[in-house]
Design brief:
The complex is a heterodimer of chains A (417) and B (209). Helices cover 16% and strands 53% of the residues of chain A. By secondary structure, chain A is an alpha+beta fold. In chain A, the strands form 2 sheets. Chain A has a 16-stranded antiparallel beta barrel. In chain A, strands 9-8-12 form a 3-stranded mixed sheet, with no helix packed on it. Among the domains of chain B are: 61 residues; 83 residues, Cytochrome Bc1 Complex, Chain D, domain 2, CATH 1.10.760. Chain B is built from 7 helices and no strands. Classes of the chains: A alpha+beta (417), B mainly alpha (209). The interface between A and B is large, with 72 and 67 residues. Chain B: GO terms for molecular function: electron transfer activity; heme binding; metal ion binding. Chain B: This is C-type cytochrome.
Chain lengths: 417, 209
């Protein structure tokens, strides 16, 4: 038995030795070189994969860092200049056509993190006499209190309605002109100086926005007429353009509430109330005024906007009412009311850059010479979203042969930058 | 008439005071300790639903990341956006403002073909409906109608794929679609899946076969 086991062991050992010699036989140099090249290729591939993964991880880390840093990917302070400008041509029924420089309105933004922002818009215009006029359209410091509240102080655009605060820039306004009554001397207030709290918040499925303000309020202008040798006064207008002082010490409060019950539709209501005093006489000697008391000043407004694909319909109503004189002032004793409303439809022709616009406005003032009923038709070409060419024709109906009665053709190039 | 208006003015005054009080109290009660990051998918929806209320839609590629910060905060005030909506819109715009390839340019291929992370329907509803609409007819001016015969879906699948990857501005539109619809995380599989869904749901029979 022992002998058989020994023979079997020796046989297995000899077979293993032969097999191992075959297995560990030395490869040729050529084979080794090819193996080395293969291995080098594999290493290169692995290195590239590692680099790619590292780059992706780096990008993910950076995104995470940005995402968790209150959306602030830059330095703490930012400055950005934006704005708009327009040039054009106007041909009015009673006058010769003229090229015009509408306005250049740079807007400056200075922002520190998500805490505070300074916003300011200049309005630079060339008048009919060639003089350049510079005005401060607004200047506010916005404090972002939290996600739902921003407190702003300074000179701000009036939040009454939509046109003045959001639609007046020429690259946004779909016609070359403002609706009568919504300009700088109409029924709708333009701007004010004071404090404003605004923001937005959801109410279930309804989105809402709000703006409430307290301000210096407007000043009143009287006009003087001489009839049969006697001088008579009447209220000429309400100057609601953001005065830097409150001449009568009476503050105005007001605001707007906006509701968006479903995407594409917004409804807004506005109101303001306060006191206002006659402080000047239109083209007259203001020193003639004496004993002027503050009068009631009330504004109400409503607006809507509906957007469906390429179709947009909007409208707005504003009424400004000034009460009668309650004191012994020399100016008009009667009160006065200004009302204006417009509705505008615009349609962007499908798969094209053309847009058609129609707007109807009715502006009523205490003075027949200011009353105006206007129908405007326009065609726009959108070179881009912010560079727009406009051509419009206005059918104006006012006091016979007054400026308000002149039809006009307007051409405008507006650029929002 | 006067009494009615006085009554209305009274109601408005009370409504304003009540609203002011509600708004003043609610945010402090529910304010979060730290602002959560923006969500690009929600941002694209908020962007499409809010910006066109007043003006033509600006392309995300119009401005750099830092310029969008000040612009969007400016619009937060103008449009009455919440802070979260502001961050969402900013996340979308900053993620979507890569340079857009225009018609005729070659698309840059994706680095690695990765599989879809969701169904085409889910991807479409999450990232595409803000502009293209749930019915594929386009919610915003200038956005093409997928359902129209010989429309956008009559292109070949590869061309559509390249348009989505690199962004696209069609000749009749004043605003381009950003690369990958503004979501840089979409994989090749995602894009192919959403294109299959779009073609099957809105395409005309035999349109792009």
């Amino acid at each position: 038995m022992k002998r058989e086991s020994l023979i079997r062991t020796l046989a297995i050992g000899a077979t293993a030795l032969v097999a191992s010699n075959a297995a560990f036989a030395s490869p040729s140099l050529e084979e080794l070189t090819q193996d080395l090249k293969k291995m080098q290729t594999e290493v290169d591939k692995l290195q590239k994969q590692i680099q790619s993964l590292a780059a992706k991880q780096e990008a993910r880390d950076a995104k995470q860092e940005v995402g968790t840093a209150n959306e602030w990917p830059q330095s703490d302070s930012l400055f950005h200049m934006t704005g708009y400008a327009d040039v054009g041509y106007v041909n009015t029924e009673a006058t010769e056509g003229s090229f015009t420089v509408g306005s250049f309105s740079p807007i400056f933004h200075f922002q520190y993190r998500d805490l505070v922002m300074l916003e300011s818009e200049m309005e630079i215009e060339v008048g009919d006499d060639g003089e350049t006029e510079v005005a401060l359209e607004y200047l506010v410091v916005d404090w972002f209190i939290n996600d739902y509240m921003t407190l702003m102080g300074g000179k701000f655009l009036s939040p009454i309605g939509q046109f003045r605060q959001n639609l007046h820039p020429s690259w946004i306004n779909k016609l070359p002109s403002a609706p009568p009554g919504f300009g700088h001397d109409g029924a709708a207030p333009v701007s004010d100086v004071g404090l404003q709290l605004r923001g937005g918040f959801p109410l279930g499925s309804v989105r809402t926005s709000y703006a409430f303000y307290v301000s210096n309020g407007p000043q009143l202008v009287a006009e003087m007429e001489e009839e049969d040798g006697e001088i008579e006064y009447a209220l000429d207008g309400v100057e609601a353009e953001g005065f830097g002082s409150d001449s009568d010490g009476e503050k105005t409060i007001g605001g707007r509430l906006g509701f968006i019950p479903f995407a594409g539709f917004e409804l807004g209501i506005s109101a303001a109330s306060g006191k206002a005093t006659v402080t000047s006489i239109h083209e007259g000697d203001s020193s003639l005024l004496s004993g002027e008391a503050a009068r009631d000043y009330d504004v109400i407004g409503a607006d809507f906007n509906w957007q469906y694909q390429g179709f947009n319909l909007r409208g707005e109503y504003v009424e400004t009412k000034v009460g009668a004189d309650t004191g012994e002032g020399t100016a008009a004793s009667e009160g006065a009311t200004w009302t204006t409303w417009y509705t505008q439809a615009a349609y962007r022709i499908s798969a094209s850059k053309w847009e058609l616009v129609a707007r109807y406005t009715d502006f009523d003032s205490p003075h027949d010479s200011q009353d105006q009923e206007q129908s405007a038709l326009g065609v726009n070409y959108l070179f881009s979203s912010n560079f727009i060419g406009k051509v419009s024709y206005e059918f104006n109906d006012g006091l016979l042969e007054s400026d308000a009665d002149q039809d006009r053709v307007m051409v405008q190039m507006a650029y929002g930058f | 008439m006067k009494n009615m208006r006085d009554c209305l003015a009274g109601l408005l005054s009370k409504a304003m005071v009540l609203s002011l009080l509600s708004v003043a109290v609610a945010p402090w009660t529910f304010a979060l300790a730290a602002s959560p990051a923006g969500d690009a998918a929600k941002g694209s929806k908020a962007w499409s639903e809010n910006c066109a209320r007043c003006h033509n839609m600006r392309s995300p590629s119009d401005l750099r990341d830092d310029q969008w910060v000040t612009s969007v905060f400016h619009m937060r005030i103008r449009a009455g956006l919440t802070g979260q909506e502001t961050r969402d819109i900013l996340a979308f715009l900053q993620g979507a403002n890569d340079k857009v390839e225009y018609a005729g340019q070659k698309a840059v291929p994706l680095a690695a073909p990765l599989p879809a992370t969701g169904t085409g329907k889910h991807i479409y509803e999450s990232y595409c409906t803000a502009c293209h609409g749930a019915d594929g007819k386009g919610r915003l001016p200038g956005v093409p109608d997928f359902t129209s015969k010989n429309g956008r879906l009559s292109k070949s699948e590869n061309e559509l794929f390249n348009n989505v990857v690199s962004g696209f501005q069609s000749p009749g539109s004043s605003m381009p679609m950003p690369p990958k619809g503004g979501n840089s995380n979409l994989t090749e599989g995602d894009i192919r899946a959403v294109l299959r869904y779009i073609t099957a749901t809105f395409g005309q029979p035999g349109g792009n076969e």
